[in-house]
Each structure stands twice: as structure tokens, then as C-alpha cells.
Design a protein that fits this description.
Layout (H helix, E strand, L loop, with lengths): L35 H18 L4 E5 L6 E6 L6 E6 L3 E6 L4 E7 L5 E6 L5 E6 L3 E6 L16 E4 L6 E4 L5 E5 L3 E5 L7 E3 L6 E6 L6 E6 L3 E6 L4 E7 L4 E6 L6 E6 L4 E5 L8 E3 L6 E6 L5 E6 L4 E5 L7 E3 L7 E6 L5 E6 L4 E5 L11 H16 L4 H8 L5 H33 L1
Antiparallel strand pairs: 1-28, 2-3, 3-4, 4-5, 6-7, 7-8, 8-9, 10-11, 11-12, 12-13, 14-15, 15-16, 16-17, 18-19, 19-20, 20-21, 22-23, 23-24, 24-25, 26-27, 27-28
Amino acid sequence: MKVKTISRLESDYVATRSGDLNRMPRNADPALHPFERAREYTRALNATKLDKVFAKPFVRSLSGHSDGIYTMARSRTAVCDFVSGAGDGEIRYWDLSTGICKWAIPAHQGMVKGTGFAAGGDVIVSAGSDSTIKLWEAESSCNFAMGEVPEPLHTYVSKSPVLDMDCHWSEPMFATGGTSIDVWHHERSKPLQTMQWGLDTNGSIKFHPIEKHLLASTCDDRAIVLHDTRAGTPVRKVVLNMRSNCLSWNPMEAMNIVAANEDHNLYTFDIRKMDSAMNVHKDFVAAVMAVDFAPTGREFVAGSYDRTIRIFKYNAGHSREVYFNRRMQRIFSVQFSGDAKWVLSGSDEGNVRLWKANASDSVGTMLPREKRSKEYRDKLKERYAHMPEIRRIARHRSLPRAITKATRIKREIKVSHLLRVFERLLCTLSVAQL
């Protein structure tokens, strides 16, 4: 005769310290949990509601500029470093972790039209409407507290006013846009190449982060042009219905580029086939002035003339987040941080604002238990995102009255246009039958 006894070790289920939780044995057999899906739905609903309760996206305002901020750039080597340029010719070098301005320099006589970090991250490049491009040492040895102003490392003079500038990702080069596109080297006083398609002015310029010799630009004739710096010639051109204000390459999908357009939309193009847009991103009610991809390539942020910032998934037609502030004016520049957790915006009233990429995320350090709990809630929200109640709560946004009214007017215009097209089609069919 065999007798089986139950033996348990006390250390397996009793907390060893006073602050620990007792371990509870759980049988994962589905037959013992008949209402598991109902409980998960309730938890997903509560998690969605709590996200709305704790949604506080605004973190801080970085003040100091005395004019509107029209250009910003983040460092490609340091997460916390970025530079901003204002309409009065001043550039400021910031530390995101503390919100402190490391230095401020009156760099140009006119507006700062472009800023960027050179490939190594130790040199800042600025371009102004006074037709000059200057190189600055990022970690300068000058005593700014005593009023010392550093001299630029190099100064380059363009033949025409500069409208935009972008730095090469791996080489000591940069490109400027104006009446033509000029490609410069740090060690040359004159441009290496000058490229032009037609007589129109080039507005926005962006080097490709992966295909190092590819350059995209926007023109005043409503076109987006691709240039090859190896041959020094434009290679492809697509013309839209309205002018594009800004471009941004997807850093993970080398063939995709997003254009911010004057018609309130953003367009994603595949450069292998630019006959039509892959996706149209809507929701803005005014011209889109700036766009920037996250380093992950899964989403991008855009700023508009309607005083709002919206975050889109790379393949979604509508925004997942919209940020606004009562004091914030027209948005002219936006940037994702290097770790994709923060969003920077520069507006017309002279403030750089720091926002969370996810409005309900905690700013402080999370414990391992909190991280696991958050991952579980996010998974539940993703699983039950199609449910009507959860979808309604997740999509709800409180917007300013002017934007709500403009959205309603746009919707009415669209419906009216579709009705007219449908009536015209019916008349054509009836005439054909007679």
C-alpha cells in the first residue's frame, strides 16, 4: 500500500521580507476560468479610462527666445542635445534632461532658416536668410556667463538667401536650398555641386538616412524632387495639387517619405513608385508646416498652422494623439527626441515645448512590477481595441472650439461634394438609358 503525502516548502509561497507579496498558486486550466474573457474586457475598459484620466502630455516649456522658432534639430549621437533657431537670428543649444540652455548665440542678421548637427555631433551648422552658413562648436570653451560670444569655426556665403539646410548623416557635408540646391563640404569655401530643376525655389531639404547620396527637396511649383549627389542631377519629380512645406524620411523603411502639405494633409510616398501616394494622413484643419519621424520609424509627429500637434502611426490615416495649449501659437517646427519618448515643438510666440509621446506615460522610473502591469494593460487594450465602447473612449478628444467648428465645416463640404458627384453620375446614367 502506497501513501502519498503533500509536502510544501514554506519559502515557495510565503514572503521572505515584510514588503514582499505572498505568492498565490494559480491553475491555468481554462475550464476553471469560464469568465476570463469578460474579466479581460472589463480590465481593458478600465485601462482605457485610466489612460484618459492620467493623460498629461505637457512636460515643460523651454523659454528664452524673443522671436518665433522656425527651425529645430536633434543630435544624432546624444539623446538630450538639440538646437533651435529663431526669427531674430539667435540659435540656442539645449540640454533636454535638465531643460537648461547651454548657450545662446546671435548667429545671423536675419531669420535662422536651418539648423543641424554634423555627422560627429560635435559641430552645429546654422543657415540664415542673410545668405550665410556658419559652423559652431557644440561644447564651446567660452564663458557665456561673462558675456563672451564665440566665433564661428567657418563661415560660408551663398549666392542667394538660404531657405533650408540639412546635414549629411555620415560625412562632413551639408546641403542648402534656395534658388538652387547647393551641396557643401566643411573644408571647401564654395559648394561642391549645384543642382536645379527648373527656375523654382527649393523650400525643404532632407538627406536620406540610409541611401547616403539621395536628397529630397520641395519646390514652389508644388513638386517633390529627388536628387542624386553622386551624379549631381535630379532623378525624379512628382507634382502635387498644393505646395509641400516639409519632408521627413522613414529611418526604418528606406523607400518611404512623408510630405507635409498646404492642403491640411500629409502624404506618404514610395520613392520607387511616386505616381500616387501610399497613404493620406488627415485631421488637420490648416496647412501642415512641419513633420518629423520617430527614430523607431513606427510613427511621426506633425505641426500645423491651426496651433495643434498630432502624432500619427506611419500607416494610419488619422492621428492617435493631438496636443494643444492655450498660449501656443502657430507651429513651425517639430522634432522627436532620440529615444522616441518625447516630442518637441517650436511655435510663433517663441517657446520650445516638451511633450510626452504617450500622454499617459509616467515620467519617473518604474518598478519591474509596474512595467509588467503596464505591458499587460497595453496588451489588453490592443486585444479589445475593436470593441465599440473602448474604441469610442480611446478616440475621444477635447479640442478647441475653432478646430471643432472647422472640422465640421470641412466634413459638410466633403459630403456636399460627394452628393453633387453622385447626382451628376445619376443624370449621366439616366441620359444614357434614354
